[in-house]
Model the fold of this input.
Amino acid sequence: SQVHYSNDRGETWRVVLHAFDLPDGPGYGCGGDVLAFNPSSPDMVALGTANGLFLSRDGGQGWAAHGYIGQRFSTIAFSTQVKDLFVAGSRSDAGDPGPKFNVYINDIKQSNPRPVLSLDDFHVQHIAFDAREHSMIHLATNRGLFNTWNRGATFFQRGDLRDRMYPVSTIAVD
Done:
């Protein structure tokens, strides 16, 4: 995979990031390249790859590793209320020891924080920050809908969905 950049509204493009070849085959849908733009700093872009997390502070023209080497990212979301706060979900490769999926809550000044949630057979498909309550974060997962009201100190599963294990692929919160 590559990241391309345009500064003329898409008339021309140039490659600004190489070397993110993603594996083919089963299980790929749980991880891959994902971009997120920081609403409080428009030039900041986060890129989750099969090889870790990368940040750009110049709108995608230059990139620096932000850590999480060996983690394959499937989702990233920046807070709309707390400057430079983001949540990222990553998956370890099937052969790796330990948890298969990790959720990180991170300020961009931190590098490689500990995960706030680690579970086997668990995949976060989408993340949404609550627009009214800045510490509330919602996770759409293969096991249903999960929430934290304290920025990841504890998570709970929606009570009305707890027994059903419905996969949720996306969530929107107003």
User: Anything to note?
Assistant: DSSP finds no helices and 14 strands in the chain.
